[in-house]
Amino acid sequence: MRQQVHEAVENYFRQNAPSPVIPGQDYIPVTAKVIDSTDLQYLVDSVLDMWFTGGRFTQKFEQSFSTFMEQSFCLLVNSGSSANLLALSCLTSPELGERQLRPGDEVITVAAGFPTTVNPILQNQCVPVFVDVDPVTHQIDVAKMPAALSSRTRAVMIAHTLGNPFDAEKVKAFCVENNLWLIEDCCDAVGAKFNGKSVGTFGDVATASFYPAHHITMGEGGAVLTSNTLLKKIMLSFRDWGRDCWCPTGKDNTCGKRFSQQFADLPEGYDHKYVYTHIGYNLKVTDMQAALGCSQLLKLPSFIKKRNENFAYLRHGLRDLEQYLGFTHATKGGEASWFGFAIQVKPGSPMNRQELVTHLEKRKIGTRLLFGGNLLRQPLYKNSQHRVIGDLKNTDNIMNNVFWIGVHPGLNQEHLDYIIKVIKSCFKENA
Predict the structure, then answer these.
(1) In terms of pTM, does the model score above 0.70?
(2) Is 138 a catalytic residue?
(3) Catalytic residue, candidates 138, 214, 386, 415
(4) Average pLDDT for the chain
């Protein structure tokens, strides 16, 4: 019967596959999921198990993804934002002793990014310290990091923006020298490398996102990764209600001491499954999400290859406009896994960013700004406790003059040629 269901799913997909996007007629999205019949079959297979919380697909994905990311441990969570929250929250555990993050401790980060890289710092009552970014790579300006140090600095939490790695070796060396935790937000950069080593392996904790915009999708979903056994144990506790027990879902007494331990003021032998040592959350995924992730993971290398090819094609096609437009360069030593193609409208251009973006959107080409621009200009951070190093002039430039277009694997040469043609014609008309 299961085989019959799979055959029916295959037939269904053949008859109901998404229609191709026709340039000039249909809107070309800046991000998009790419799915096939195999993805649907994995999803249906998990549903037929009738085991809806984490199960066999969750275990399979965590093992496979940790191998891909060159890490020892992977824990699935319900979003990349939750992954960032979990990554920072785990560092507040009393089990870390003197290295425990406490309220008022400072975490170095950047303002040119997405709010959920910064929010966990504030949500844990720590203080973000904002450093400017490089104007070409859009990654943290490592040379400015020493100026951000204080007696309260305890960690660095930054993202590999748009799939371009920051200088992970220099950032790691800075953290080692100053005894700081390092969290690498890899939500945009799964598959990127620095000097041949996967992003995420330089820090103590790494995060990933599986929202439809990202390199692979579970619909919603994310992951935390580490090779530190203690941090893995702590993150498992924070993810699963804050409990002390580390039994997998649906399992009991893995430790063999379920009813024979003493915790705080609880009665001796209190059920270990109901002992809580952290103020945690429930951030788990369903096995259906993990099943889709398992299918998508099979295609991840080809997705990354296509993204990088699309980036190179756009870069070559727009090379004649460098008088007016600036393009992101990969960080020296970096091997990008491009999430988007960033464009800076230079001073002296015959149009500003708003005019160019409007021109593209009217011709059904999707655009995005570089996330929150300068996050300190956003309403939510107006009254937040923070420190700023310097004037963040490059971050403000990103806020005012930079946008990006898509390179996702759903785009083919016809789409890219149309995008290049529209951008060139726009400058020709306005020159």
Answers:
(1) yes
(2) no
(3) 214
(4) 96
